[in-house]
Amino acid sequence: MDYVTGAGVRAVLPGLAAAASAVLVAWMLHLVLPWLPLLTAAVVLGIVVGQLPWFAPALDHTLKPGIRFSAKTLMRAGVVLLGLKLSLGDIAGLGVVAILAIVGLVIVTFFGTWALGILMRLPGSEPLLVAAGFSICGASAIGAMSAATRSRPEEQATPVALVTLCGTLAIAVLPALQAPLGLSNAGFGHWVGASVHDVGQVVATAQTAGSAALAIAVVVKLTRVLMLAPMVTVASVAVRRREALAAASARSNARPGPAEGAHVAPAGAPPVGNSGNRAKPHARIRVIPLFVLGFLAAVLLNSFVSLPGPVLAGADAVQTVLLATALFALGTSVRIRSLVRTGWRALIVGLSSWLLIAVLAYAAIWL
User: Fold this and answer.
1) Which of 72, 225, 245, 266 is 20 to 30 A (C-alpha) from 102?
2) Is residue 144 a contact partner of residue 79, using CB atoms and an 8 Å limit?
3) Beta carbons within 10 angstroms of residue 341's beta carbon
4) Residues contacting residue 170 through CB under 8 Å, at least 6 positions apart
5) What are phi and psi of 36, to 5 degrees?
6) For residue 199, what pLDDT band results from cuts at 50, 70 and 90?
7) With b meaning 16 or more CB within 10 Å and e meaning fewer, what string describes 112-123?
8) What DSSP character marks residue 178?
9) What is the C-alpha to C-alpha distance for residues 149 and 133, in angstroms, rounded to an integer?
């Protein structure tokens, strides 16, 4: 849909207003329950709304354009602003060993989860989206990967539900394991930052061990977020190459040969008939999605330009609102009945991935 025209704007407004109102409700829930991150509250609220039968007609018709706009366009804008939370100096402060450990952790978890999702026969792009969500940065990574690989909106529902479930469980489970696992506050911060999915969930979990643990957890987490750019770029290139090969194969199969009764033109005669069967120059393919370039630009800007505190605070507030609105929209596409009936494979993949990244992150602390 063209969101720039007057008709496009009018179509988007009802769903966008509904999503914005839901974010306000989620914010109030966060104020009442400070341990519940705003982004988690937003996606849970979206999931609840998606189950209520009296909302179904509106979600399928009146609100649908605005919900799609929120889930796609606002998600991309939020990912761009997420880059302002990170600087190259913060990453360098972790040390070479820690950086390499984080990169290895993301890669192993991503491909391990992807392979398990394929093995468990998850449909469509779900293996890729679950892998992105659990290894990088939760629902934000799912939205970014989905946009880059042109996944269908309904394919995001189960991955978003899984990372929300496991990330929320982490808020309660990980602090209870700090003492039994013998982790110092600094070690706990490393563990949380390397294993919990969403930034808000990282903050909610790590703050239980104090400000030092929280500071370390946020830097480690945002270093994982930086891996979003190369992982999305690689997936985007792979998908576009597959599409190009499929299109070339389709054109080749559709081209009739003389044996099939096709007209054979005399030598030197101009082509006759439908020109769609003739080879065309490939359309230019954008290797790196624009929002990923925007994310990298934001990281570089924050690394080399001393931005005023109020500017960073304002950008952080806008980014939170954008992502909360997008996550509510994604949550409305979750159908619990469908998950209960057919989603046990996805649940096994999600819990296995959560266990994998938690074990690997714990092992990385002792390197």
Assistant:
1) 72
2) yes
3) 9
4) 192, 195, 196, 197, 201, 205, 354
5) -95, 110
6) confident
7) bbbebbeebebe
8) T
9) 14
Q: Which two tokens stand for residue 20?
A: 């914005």
Which tens digit of pLDDT belongs to each residue from 27-74?
Answer: 999 999 988 888 888 988 998 998 888 888 898 889 989 998 998 889
In whole angstroms, give the CA distance from residue 171 to residue 221.
Answer: 15
- Tokens 């690989």 -> residue: 149
SS3 track for 31-83: HHCCCCCHHHHHHHHHHHHHHCHHHHHHHHCCCHHHHHHHHHHHHHHHHHHHH
| Residue-wise pLDDT tens digits, 83-100 | 888 888 888 888 999 999
- Angle at the Cα of 233 (from 230 to 238), degrees rounded to 5? 125
Q: Which residue is associated with the tokens 């104020």? A: 31
Q: Which amino acid is at 365?
A: I
Instruction: State the Cα–Cα distance between residues 52 and 32, nearest whole angstrom.
Output: 24
Supply 355's token pair: 């266990």
C-alpha to C-alpha distance for 171 and 164, rounded to whole angstroms:
11
CA–CA distance, 115 with 106 (Å, rounded to integer)? 14
Q: Please, which residues have CB within 8 angstroms of residue 175's CB and are 6 or more apart in sequence?
A: 205, 208, 209
CA distance 318 to 56: 29
Integer Rg of the chain from CA: 23
- Residue (of 222, 266, 200) closest to 98 by Cα position: 222
Angle between helix axes 211-226 and 199-206 (nearest 10 degrees) is 160
- Separation in Å, CA 301 to CA 55, 200, 294: 42, 23, 10
